Automatic annotation (TrEMBL):
Annotated Polar residues bias: 758-777
Region named Disordered: 755-777
Descriptive protein name: GH92 family glycosyl hydrolase
Entry EC no(s): 3.2.1.-
The Glycosyl hydrolase family domain, residue ranges: 286-749
Organism expressing this protein natively: Pseudoalteromonas spongiae
Ranges of residues in domain Glycosyl hydrolase family 92 N-terminal: 14-280
Molecular functions (GO terms): hydrolase activity, acting on glycosyl bonds
Pfam families from the UniProt entry: Glyco_hydro_92, Glyco_hydro_92N
UniProt entry tagged with the keyword Hydrolase: yes
Cited SUPFAM superfamilies: Six-hairpin glycosidases
Highest taxon of source: Bacteria
Matches recorded under InterPro entries: 6-hairpin_glycosidase_sf, GH-type_carb-bd, GH92_a_mannosidase_put, GH92_N, Glyco_hydro_92, PNGase
Amino acid sequence: MMLTIPVVSANTQYVDPFIGTGGDGHTFPGAVVPFGMVQLSPDTDSVFRGIDPQPEIYKRCAGYHYDDTTIVGFSHTHFSGTGHSDLGDLLMMPITGEVKLDAGTAKNPDAGYRSRFSHQNESAKPGYYQVLLEDYKINAELTATTRVGMHKYTFKEHDKGSVLLDLTHGIYNFKNKVIWSDVRVINDRTILAHRATNGWANNRQMYFAIEFSKPFKDIELINLDNSRYRCNGCLNEGSGKKPSTIVNYKIPEAAGKALKVVAEFDNLKGNPLLVKVGISAVSKSNALENLNSEIPHWNFDKVVKQADDVWHKSLDKFGIEGSLSQKRQFFTSVYHALQAPSVYQDANGQYRGVDGEIHQAKNHTHYTLFSLWDTYRALHPLLTYVEPDKVSDMIASMLDHYQQSYDKMLPIWSFHGHETWTMIGYHAVSVIADAYLKGIRDFDVALAKEAILATANHPHYDAIPEYKHYGYVPLDVLPESTSITLEYAYDDYAIGQFLTALGDNELAAEYYERATYYQNVFDPSVKFMRGRLKDGSWNPDFDPQEAKYMGAFTEGNSYQYSFYVPQDVHGLINLKGGDKAFIARLDELFETELAYEKIKEHEDIAGLIGQYAHGNEPSHHIAYLYNYAGEPWRTQARIRQIMDTLSSDKPDGLAGNDDVGQMSAWYIFSAMGFYPVAPGDLSYALGAPQLPKITLKLANKKQFTVLAKNLSADNKFVSQVTLNGKPLNRSYITHDDIISGGTLEFTMSAKPKKTFGNALSSRPPSLSNPKNPNTLH
């Protein structure tokens, strides 16, 4: 099939947007630019239609699943790799013949407007998507800028056709998703629309400006709850003039909870129909301004090329050597990692705040989509190297959230001006601390300190008063209490690091003390983290393998969370009985089979190696913990095991949700041979590089290169490490090592070098390792 897309740039050719669209990766294949507000992508099912509700909504959190064979249409907003669903704003579907108003079902697509498709007639590249809608013989192509989506529909066999706009569509299994919507026809090419929805975020506002490249012959506004209004020539047919030239008839408009629009066109065969859609969370006029400012023309190929150029610039921050499969996995990971947080302001700087009011961004770009429980671990540390300027703006956006929120909290899991209160901890403090310690400080530091302290001492959020009173969150006060305690303790460590860097050592000491509260939920009789009650007794209902809702742990079990002390791994080693006992427990985690019935309540616990669940974040740092016990060679073996068994360049190549780029960031760091176990301590535990050469181009114009000599399928162990030509005897590197530029060279071998990294002073730093000179506190 002849495609519009031009030859792609050097690194964009290795990106496959279909990686992660199968299995439970929950990514989408559609058109998006780096950190774009628009994610224009196909949806392979309409999640709630009043009939045939989907029991497998979890599979379609991103709207699209690779296993599906029908497409409902193309909507303009999507999450990438989340474990929850929402968005799917403004579905559009080109149609020939009879227009059906219901989507139909996957089992009976002829009952609705959906169309069959096949992957043989589907393609995607960064900023571009294409598919043949088989039932209509329409080739649909999509591209995007930051705030505008552009469609190109080529009608291969029909001269007449229609475009359906479905304002009831959404990626959420919620019957009354649409609170209100309205649509207004401005002229014979332009429609303005709005809808407010309930879902994961309630009363979420979105506005649309839709412009067609040719005048519609007729248009019908349909309120399924009330009435239909058909234009029947009420506009100057074919004029394409501005709203002021509309003839003196009633302007077609409609409002209600169940609106659909059908625009009819003729003279289509051989004359592609183009559609531009600008979006805004502020107003219809802003949506129209976004549209006109970002795509003032009708050159689809130009927008595709522009998107490719933007992606090339972002992807070009890395250079790699490796196999084709490795290049595809690596650059697709970078592609996924650079999609969020996303821009959430209009071209004129306006945005809708968490207070529901309209604000003007000043001195920074406002961002949304902070999946912080996931992304503080590796995504945000990665962004400090590849997009440091945007990191400052993201932190400023978090501070906007703090100032505007009624609760006076930093974001927990927020998007589109709404706090969802999903997941646990207050991990925005980790992102702020890690960035500040790395010298990224173009934000209001005094306000950041205020916001951090207010959040960490909030009187109403997730049992913080009890945490401070007891030194742990009691299970008979709040479910998931043990996980909450452990994650608070890490966050408090990050706060201590931040305060130390500010010179407030007295206050820092308070948070370093709180960072040791993990000890209060460690049961020495079983050497596991365990739920604890207000009276100090241990939860009698304890099974270290069990992960259940309303239990002591969050999307994990005690096996996994018993290793969640990233700020003080050396202290944890002491609790577990020393290096050998700690290593034995790590091996036990990887080698003890996890029974499905123990985790069946949690879809997110996936990608299993024993009890290790690579598909979910609580496990992500665990393979690197062998370094802290003096046996880095075991980390090297585990990283290769994870890479070989739980990732590929196929649609199901992600072991679990990409979680807004966290899984991808793990892959990028791990492929380079190091990982941020505890963001905020400025160190990276070494693993083993998985590609022969990776170069990171830094914002300061320097380069950090990782070489892996003699790397092969058999040579997975590190026999020697040098940094800028000098032997490196420690099993970690620092932020200064990276940001200063240079070369980290690993010599790989089939046999482990078991003496490397043995000495306590050569191990990665943590709170209870005072012999390590790199410990900030």
